[in-house]
């Protein structure tokens, strides 16, 4: 299957950004690990990080043409603000898992609401960078059982 991993704003700073909250693993390390794991399981995974909502929306819209089967997304701060990103995912009917490094429910109340959780297959939060591995494992399992 063709898998897509999307990262929202400020996640390019992983490793140095509030490491007590978000961990010491860099985005490059996360991406490299997931690309390798997907490959080993016979799938392809592409990744994109952007600080721009429109770039993420364009990438999601492109999945309608490029054969993407499944999305793993950490919308970062857009989780709590972006009706537009939500609508893009609904428009292309892409199944997805929402991932957050931190436990958003243990933080400020404005992080408790997500524009994605009710339309996601599942949500993983609070498990750090490992959350991405678990999401990928789900996707691999899902596509090997079809
Ligand atoms: C985050 C949680 C969001 O509230 C925050 O804006 C982020 C990262 C996480 O991975 O824990 O940028 O999505």
From TrEMBL:
Per the UniProt entry, the Enzyme Commission number(s) are: 4.2.1.10
Binding residue positions for substrate: 74, 80, 87, 101-102, 111
Kindly give the InterPro entries that the UniProt entry links to this protein.
DHquinase_II (IPR001874), DHquinase_II_CS (IPR018509), DHquinase_II_sf (IPR036441)
Q: Which reaction does it catalyse?
A: 3-dehydroquinate = 3-dehydroshikimate + H2O
Swiss-Prot/TrEMBL GO biological process terms: amino acid biosynthetic process; aromatic amino acid family biosynthetic process; chorismate biosynthetic process; quinate catabolic process
The record's annotation in SUPFAM superfamilies points to: Type II 3-dehydroquinate dehydratase
Looking at the UniProt record, the site noted as Transition state stabilizer sits at: 17
Function, as annotated, reads: Catalyzes a trans-dehydration via an enolate intermediate.
Q: Which family does it belong to?
A: Belongs to the type-II 3-dehydroquinase family.
Q: Which keywords belong to this entry? A: Amino-acid biosynthesis, Aromatic amino acid biosynthesis, Lyase
- Name the active site residues: 22 (proton acceptor), 100 (proton donor)
Its name, as the record gives it, is: 3-dehydroquinate dehydratase
> Per the UniProt entry, what species is this protein from, by scientific name?
Agitococcus lubricus
What Pfam families does the entry give?
A: DHquinase_II
Name of the top EC class for this enzyme? lyase
Which CDD domains does its entry note?
DHQase_II (cd00466)
Q: Which NCBIfam families match?
A: aroQ, PRK05395.1-1, PRK05395.1-2, PRK05395.1-3, PRK05395.1-4
Domain of life, per lineage? Bacteria
This protein's pathway reads:
Metabolic intermediate biosynthesis; chorismate biosynthesis; chorismate from D-erythrose 4-phosphate and phosphoenolpyruvate: step 3/7
The UniProt subunit note reads as follows: Homododecamer.
What are the protein's GO molecular function terms? Answer: 3-dehydroquinate dehydratase activity
């Amino acid at each position: 299957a063709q898998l897509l991993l999307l990262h929202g704003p400020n996640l390019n700073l992983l490793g140095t950004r509030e490491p007590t909250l978000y961990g010491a693993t860099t985005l490059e390390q996360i991406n490299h690990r997931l690309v390798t794991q997907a490959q080993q399981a016979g799938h392809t995974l592409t990744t994109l990080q952007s600080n721009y909502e429109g770039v993420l929306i364009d990438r999601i819209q492109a999945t309608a043409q490029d054969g993407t089967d499944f999305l793993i997304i950490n919308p970062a701060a857009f989780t709590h603000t972006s009706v537009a990103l939500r609508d893009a995912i609904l428009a292309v009917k892409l199944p997805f898992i929402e991932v957050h490094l931190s436990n958003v429910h243990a933080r400020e109340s404005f992080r408790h609401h997500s524009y994605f959780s009710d339309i996601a297959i599942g949500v993983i939060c609070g498990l750090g960078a490992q959350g991405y591995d678990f999401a990928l494992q789900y996707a691999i399992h899902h596509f090997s059982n079809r």
